[in-house]
Write a structure and sequence with these properties.
- The complex is a heterodimer of chains A (334) and B (440).
- The longest helix of chain A has 19 residues, at 306-324.
- Chain A is built from 13 helices and nine strands.
- In chain A, the strands form two sheets. Chain A has a five-stranded parallel β-sheet with strand order 7-6-5-8-9. A four-stranded parallel β-sheet of chain A has the order 2-1-3-4, with helices on both faces.
- With 334 residues, chain A is α/β, with parallel strands linked by helices.
- The N and C termini of chain A lie far apart (39 Å).
- In chain B, 28% of the residues lie in helices and 23% in strands.
- In chain B, strands 1, 2, 3, 4, 5, 16, 17 and 18 form an eight-stranded mixed β-sheet that branches.
- In chain B, helix 1 packs across helix 2 (105-118), helix 2 runs parallel beside helix 3 and helix 4 (162-172) packs across helix 7 (210-227).
- The chains are: A alpha/beta (334), B alpha/beta (440).
- The A-B interface holds A 111-113, 131, 133-136, 138-139, 143, 153-157, 191, 194, 217-220, 222-223, 252-253 and B 190-191, 196-207, 276-277, 318, 321-326.
Chain lengths: 334, 440
């Protein structure tokens, strides 16, 4: 967190739409950005602003979710997302249960549904699910009583990442509408891409996506983004440069010849960053491959907000947990 | 025992018949098809065919998976043929990807024995192209033929190499048997689970490009020209495949093809609506994009498509209640086929009922060189009675198949099977078709 940020107050209008501000979430689960209206997105971001304040208190805890149980069910390795959820849950006083299951043991026997139903027998209120299969959260939402929060499903969505990205952008730019956002890297395998595209286009940003043609999901332009394989076109005059991880572990085939060539053609270097607007910010959802998709000088440089994203993740996840638990209404009823 | 079907509309395209005729069945054969047949002497069951019903040659589904031996939790030959006759099919050809694979006479004989025990639809086994369907060595094709196999296929997988396909076509031509190919280039398929396109991209599902099918259809059509053998393209689903088949036919090659009902009815948009990630919309080939669905319809209308086959692929509910990428490919199809053909093809006026019967009976019987597909005097008395105006709402739990994996649950269709007669004997009457009980 090397760049100073001006934080707007939560009352600043962000949305272009005429719809009245949302006061609660329509759906009982958070399966993806696809299910959220622009007003609901703004509600989450505004709520996160309030939650952010808690992180600056000496006692970083509020009783909001006291007596609620949240299961963090992670079928994939995760450092950032899992710890971020756990911190968020603890700051809201929820009882948390971390279940990390290697995919291999599931292959041996129990299905995802059975695993979830067994956990449900212990009456949790919410299940935070990370899973390698796209749609895993949708599957659980059909069989579970608990509220399901998607912490990343396969190549599909990672809604809380997109929300924390939007939160971070808004803190720096004061808005999302009208910004040029360039997203670069492995577009094909990225759930971060899908959630960000849905969110940013919904809030009126101009989104460019860039990667080698082998890593561009077919038909992605129908989501309202501009597609290019020329980094300079994507980055030129951008307000935000968002790098995606080259997911080495998912590279089943030869999507590009070598990491060296990838960096030469697509790597984010200081020279390329200079094409963007002078106040551009550089983002990365992590974990980074230094020297592959991003040069260290850029990752650690003055435009980088990468660690700030991590900090903001806690506030955004607190907002999501709070709103799904019922928000102000539920608190009043309790 | 004689049975006289009086007063129905008979559609028998193999004999150029479409009109009000009576059909006399004597034992297991068609005895006479004429207007205003008098009641013959002796013991005769006279059946007054209810108004609006249509009498057609028994329907033949040339592509089903009966799962027995080895996967009896999904389907058995008894439950599969029960589902077949409930769908109006008097005969089904079953694919060899059982466990063990039907690559030897012992399995073929087992299947035929089980089918005879069930006593419902006729079952025509399809033998494997290669031993264990492993794509390496030819199976004992002469033995399979002698035991009763009507075709060879490594369905579930493509015939692995161009050389093996060439040899299979050459060798099977001795027996005038078609080689039925599940066309799909394995390297292009990779780990794909849904049609490569916008919807798979939006859902983050690994794509299965249409080109994976098309390139292999092109290969097979080329090899049909080289060998003079008979290629039959299973469950064709892409517009490129259709062009390749049309090209082969234009050159006089022995190329035929089938299309499954879901491939001219549903698009890959079904992956998102009404239910996201519905594993009952996961099959292989996958539901394709609109341009492909339109092409299948065009091929059905213009005659390029030879047959409609269901690719009936039962899977247990537990197997489908998993993550989309882990669920098996396939849906049941025997009991939804006739309603879909009426609703999507006949009633909108895309094809005539006679053309529908060509696709569902005449052509599959001809491709498999089986009796049936005709109500000629002396033909086997396999007869299906259709009720074009009766409506049905598909309820998955009420399907006769042991498995309930259909994307059409809750859909209402106009046009059903009223009764199914195999070898002169009624094996099914449909309670959804008022009046069908007279065929019992």
């Amino acid at each position: 967190m090397t760049k100073s940020s001006s934080s707007p107050t939560s009352s600043e209008p962000v949305v272009v739409a005429d719809a009245p501000p949302a006061t609660r979430l329509k759906h009982r689960h958070l399966l993806g950005i696809a299910d959220l209206t622009p007003e609901e997105i703004v509600l989450i971001l505004d709520t996160a602003e309030a939650m952010q304040e808690i992180a600056h208190r000496p006692i970083k805890k509020v009783p909001t979710l006291r007596g609620r149980t949240v299961v963090n069910l992670f079928f994939e390795p995760s450092t950032r997302t899992r710890t971020s959820f756990e911190v968020a849950e603890k700051r809201l006083s929820a009882d948390t249960l971390n279940v990390a299951i290697a995919t291999s043991s599931v292959v041996k026997g129990e299905t995802l549904v059975d695993t979830a139903l067994n956990l449900e027998a212990m009456s949790p209120d919410m299940i935070v699910l990370r899973h390698a299969s796209s749609g895993a959260c949708h599957l659980l939402s059909r069989v579970c009583r608990s509220k399901i929060i998607n912490a990343g499903d396969g190549m599909h969505e990672h809604p809380t990442q997109a929300l924390l990205d939007a939160f971070t952008i808004r803190r720096h730019k004061g808005r999302l509408g009208g910004l040029k956002v360039a997203i670069l890297g492995d577009l094909l395998h990225s759930r971060v891409l899908r959630s960000n595209v849905l969110l940013l286009t919904r809030l009126g940003a101009e989104v460019w996506v860039c990667g080698p043609p082998t890593l561009v999901p077919p038909g992605i332009e129908r989501l309202g983004v501009k597609v290019t394989s020329v980094v300079e076109d994507a980055v030129r005059d951008a307000d935000v440069i968002m790098m995606l991880r080259i997911q080495l572990e998912r590279m089943q085939g030869a999507f590009f010849p070598s990491l060296r060539e990838y960096f030469n053609v697509f790597g984010m270097t200081e020279a390329r960053v200079r094409l963007a607007r002078p106040d551009a910010i550089i983002m990365h959802p992590g974990p980074m491959n230094r020297g592959v998709e991003i040069a260290s000088e850029v990752a650690d440089g003055p435009f980088s907000v990468i660690l700030e994203q991590v900090a903001n993740g806690v506030a955004v996840r607190m907002a999501v947990l709070y709103l799904l638990a019922g928000g102000a209404e539920d608190e009043a009823a309790a | 025992m004689k049975r006289l079907l009086k007063g129905g509309r008979v559609v028998d395209p193999a004999n150029g018949i479409d009109g009000a005729f009576d059909v006399l069945i004597d034992g297991d054969r068609v005895a006479r098809v004429e207007k205003n047949l008098p009641k013959p002497d002796g013991e005769v069951q006279v059946i007054d065919v209810p108004k609006g019903f249509v009498v057609v040659p028994g329907l033949v589904d040339m592509h089903v998976h009966l799962r027995e031996p080895g996967q009896e939790h999904k389907e058995t030959i008894a439950t599969g043929t029960k589902s077949a006759v409930a769908g109006g099919f008097t005969a089904v050809a079953c694919m060899p990807n059982t466990s063990p694979i039907n690559d030897n006479a012992g399995i073929t004989e087992f299947i035929l024995k089980k089918a005879a025990d069930a006593g419902l639809a006729r079952v025509y086994p399809i033998g494997a192209v290669s031993r264990g369907s492993n794509g390496e060595f030819l199976a004992d094709i002469a033995e399979l033929h002698a035991a009763g196999c009507v075709a060879i296929s490594d369905d579930g997988r493509p015939v692995a190499t161009a050389l093996l396909m060439r040899r299979a076509l050459e060798y099977a031509s001795m027996f005038d048997m078609p080689v039925i190919d599940h066309c799909e280039d394995p390297s292009l398929k990779a780990d794909g689970v849904a049609h490569e396109g916008f919807h798979a991209s939006a859902l983050g599902l690994p794509g299965l490009p249409g080109a994976a099918e098309t390139v292999m259809v092109q290969r097979d059509v080329t090899l049909a020209g080289l060998t003079k053998g008979r290629v039959h393209i299973a469950h064709m689903s892409t517009r490129g495949s259709l062009r390749a088949v049309q090209d082969g036919k234009a050159q006089g090659f022995h190329v035929t093809c089938e299309v499954a009902p879901h491939h001219f009815t549903l698009t890959d948009a079904s992956l998102e609506k009404p239910l996201q990630f519905d594993t009952n919309c996961k099959m292989n080939p996958p539901l394709r994009e609109q341009a492909d669905v339109d092409a299948m319809l065009r091929g059905i209308i213009d005659g390029s498509v030879d047959a409609i086959a269901t690719d009936h692929a039962p899977h247990h509910a537990d197997e489908k209640a998993v993550e989309f990428d882990r669920a098996p490919f396939g849906i049941v199809g025997l009991e939804t086929c006739v309603p879909i053909v009426f609703e999507k093809l006949v009633h909108p006026g895309h094809i005539t009922l006679a053309r529908a019967i060509e696709l569902l009976s005449v052509n599959p019987a001809r491709i498999l060189r089986r009796p049936g597909g005709s109500l000629a005097v002396g033909a086997v008395a396999d007869v299906t009675v259709l009720a074009p105006e009766a409506s049905t709402t598909i309820v998955a739990s009420r399907l006769m198949s042991k498995s309930k994996n259909t994307p059409f649950g809750g859909w209402t269709f106009r046009g059903v099977t009223a009764a199914t007669i195999v070898g002169g004997r009624t094996v099914f009457t449909n309670p959804d078709a008022p009046g069908a009980a007279v065929f019992a």
